[in-house]
Amino acid sequence: CNYLTMIDHLKRTKIIATCGPALTKSLVSLKMLDDNEYAAIKKVAYANIEAIIKSGVSVIRLNFSHGTHEEQQVRIKIVRDVANNWNIPVSIMLDTNGPEIRIVETKKEGLKITKDSEVIINTMSKMIASDTSLLSVMLVAKYNMVNDVI
Asked: Coiled-coil annotation: which residues (predicted)?
């Protein structure tokens, strides 16, 4: 990759594509990449990555909420191989797990949050205690869900 291409790549707005099993098919290990038994699947996976890179994608996003680390290594290898083969700079973005908000118990009809609703979110596990003084140690954050999240 020449110097001007790299500078141009760094300045441009990025087009991001998520890379998962839809692109890399059932290749889940580095060993499979080297095994001729999987040559047809490998060919399709490489063609898929090549197609998105040639169409203008400059960042490949890997979602680490799904798949194993080895599956992600396979995807990184394919992306790097294709990018190097075509002399196109491609960044790889790792989307790692972060805190998640889950609603544990809801009514059968669901939960409706409307403007100005007050929702209390906490990270405490449920516990049963005979001494209610334990409640004073719970840290509770208040959120205006509609204004702060949406």
From this structure: none
